[in-house]
């Protein structure tokens, strides 16, 4: 029987070859924009099938590698051997089937460790030699036992070796009312002056920018301090390396390395809950770094007080500094993000109505918003079709349906009455005054557009009216929107209120 995820995959494309498609850099190798769009679709399906927590922990970190045109083998990379083995054992068949359905070019899937993962120089325990003291320190983020090689003097390799995404900087972070506090706090944490608070705790739902700010913080800190040593990792990676050190009887070395960093950045801290030994080590590390005036920042999808299973002393440390909440992006910020993203594309003509549509309908998180725009532009470029509202509705069905909030007829009636300053009872009354009938017809129209209710069901919510009355109202408002700018403006305003 086919995997349940198959229903979410895009139809396989015929007549496409790796050499003929536009190439873009992604993950550990090169892949084309079409594969990038396929991966976005596959991820949407896996998120639904596996649940948000499993998806975030194991599938979200996957990076696309290169597709071999001869063998049809696509490389998928994960950050650690532990996570790569886990995904291989549990999801290899599911991923292979999903890719075969999504793309005719992919015949095999190979899962491994990201080759871009940089290993760190060995940090021996004991008194450093004079040469070691005089040598400039590199930006580092791991605990592996390997030897560093000399890099270029321009410092670019230093930042790259920190495991920080070069695209995730303060310059590329778009601010709005809901995230400006967190952004300012992150910039203050990265500044030359000692921070007024430590640690910084960024709290936000998935895809709202907390990981972006952690990376930006690391970049800024490295830029203002030559040779700064930064440890950026997920809570999952912290636990994996802790367990490895414990099994290899190298805990003293682990502690020494970890506490030698100038900045500690830990993402998805909610995944450390319930791990008593790892929590204790993180607690001692926080205390040691704070005592030396070093900087710490954490990110999670919930507030510290909502982290179930966290040892009380660790909970106290996480919440002792500043907890900066990132609110979901409102429509204005979503528009700014789309416009900022469009500035990076050349020869991309995206009409204003498409931008407004995406900003209005993809409201769940910023990552999906940007992913939807990328997918739309990639599809248009690869097929030669112009970007249009119809194309957006056809190609982004999965994203749009996932973001569509359940709006009730009661909510519509209440919003329309507030907008036109009517009493709620007028929606079901028999009055036929124009000042009452037209808002009632608008509410019927919105009920048909925004809810799955049938015409008879809508009629019953409006005082038991016949379905033909609802059909007449819907057709009338549709016609008025094309001829009357004021009516179209009223409906657009109501749509924004109901969908925001």
Task: Output the radius of gyration.
Answer: 26 Å
| Record field, number of beta strands | 10
Whole-number total of structural domains: 4
Helix content: 40-55%
Largest sheet properties: 5 strands, parallel
The number of helices is 21
> So what's the overall shape?
globular
Low-confidence stretches: 1-30, 118-161
Question: Strand fraction band?
Answer: 5-15%
**Oligomeric state, counting identical vs distinct chains:** single chain
CATH-assigned fold name of the largest domain:
Rossmann fold
Class from helix and strand fractions:
alpha/beta
**Could you give the distance between the termini?**
40 Å
CATH class of the largest domain: Alpha Beta
**Mean pLDDT, rounded to whole units?**
80
Please state how the strands of the largest beta sheet are arranged side by side.
7-8-9-6-10
Tell me what the CATH architecture of the largest domain is.
Answer: 3-Layer(aba) Sandwich
CATH superfamily of the largest domain: P-loop containing nucleotide triphosphate hydrolases
Secondary structure elements and pairings:
Elements: E1 23-26, E2 29-32, H1 33-50, H2 52-59, E3 63-67, E4 73-78, H3 81-102, E5 108-113, H4 130-134, H5 156-160, H6 180-190, E6 200-203, H7 210-224, E7 230-234, H8 235-247, H9 251-258, E8 263-267, H10 276-291, E9 295-300, H11 312-319, E10 322-325, H12 331-342, H13 352-361, H14 366-383, H15 389-395, H16 397-403, H17 409-420, H18 434-450, H19 455-461, H20 467-483, H21 485-499
Parallel strand pairs: 4-5, 6-9, 6-10, 7-8, 8-9
Antiparallel strand pairs: 1-2, 3-4
Helix pairs in contact: 1-2, 1-3, 1-14, 6-7, 12-13, 12-14, 17-18, 18-20, 19-20, 20-21
């Amino acid at each position: 029987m086919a995997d349940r995820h198959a229903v979410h995959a895009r139809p396989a494309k015929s007549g496409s070859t790796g050499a003929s498609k536009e190439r873009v850099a992604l993950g550990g190798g090169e892949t084309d924009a079409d594969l990038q769009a396929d991966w976005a679709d596959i991820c949407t399906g896996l998120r639904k099938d596996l649940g948000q927590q499993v998806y975030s922990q194991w599938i979200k970190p996957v990076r696309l590698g290169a597709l071999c045109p001869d063998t049809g083998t696509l490389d998928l990379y994960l950050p650690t051997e532990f996570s790569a083995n886990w995904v291989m054992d549990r999801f290899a068949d599911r991923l292979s089937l999903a890719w075969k359905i999504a793309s005719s070019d992919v015949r095999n899937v190979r899962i491994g460790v990201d080759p871009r993962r940089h290993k760190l120089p060995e940090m021996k325990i004991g008194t450093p030699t004079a040469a070691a003291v005089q040598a400039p320190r590199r930006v580092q983020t791991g605990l592996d036992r390997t030897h560093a090689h000399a890099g270029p003097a321009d410092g670019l390799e230093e930042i790259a070796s920190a495991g920080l995404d070069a695209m995730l900087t303060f310059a590329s972070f778009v601010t709005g009312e809901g995230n400006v506090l967190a952004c300012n706090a992150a910039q203050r944490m990265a500044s030359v002056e000692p921070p007024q608070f430590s640690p910084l705790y960024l709290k936000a739902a998935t895809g709202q920018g907390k990981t972006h700010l952690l990376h930006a913080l690391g970049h800024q800190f490295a830029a203002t301090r030559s040779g700064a040593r930064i440890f950026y990792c997920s809570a999952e990676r912290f636990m994996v390396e802790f367990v490895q050190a414990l099994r290899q009887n190298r805990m003293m070395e682990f502690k020494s390395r970890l506490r030698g960093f100038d900045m500690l950045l830990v993402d998805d801290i909610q995944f450390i809950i319930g791990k008593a030994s790892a929590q204790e080590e993180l607690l001692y590390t926080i205390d040691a770094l704070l005592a030396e005036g070093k900087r710490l920042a954490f990110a999670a999808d919930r507030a510290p007080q909502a982290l179930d299973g966290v040892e009380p002393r660790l909970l106290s440390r996480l919440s002792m500094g500043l907890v900066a909440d990132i609110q979901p992006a409102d429509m204005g910020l979503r528009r700014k993000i789309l416009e900022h993203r469009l500035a990076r594309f050349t020869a991309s003509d995206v009409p204003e109505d498409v931008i407004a549509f995406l900003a209005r309908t993809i409201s769940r998180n910023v990552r999906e918003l940007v992913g939807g725009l990328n997918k739309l532009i990639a599809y248009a470029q690869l097929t030669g079709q112009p970007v249009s509202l119809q194309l957006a509705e056809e190609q982004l069905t999965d994203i749009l349906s996932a973001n569509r909030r359940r709006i009730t007829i009661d909510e519509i009636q209440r919003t329309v009455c507030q907008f036109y300053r009517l009493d709620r009872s007028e929606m079901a009354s028999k009055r036929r005054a124009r000042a009452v009938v037209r808002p009632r017809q608008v509410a019927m129209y919105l009920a048909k557009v925004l809810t799955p209710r049938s015409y008879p069901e809508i009629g019953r919510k409006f005082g038991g009216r016949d379905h033909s009355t609802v059909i007449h109202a819907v057709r009338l408002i549709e016609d008025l929107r094309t001829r009357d700018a004021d009516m179209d403006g009223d409906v657009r305003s109501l749509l924004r209120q109901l969908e925001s």
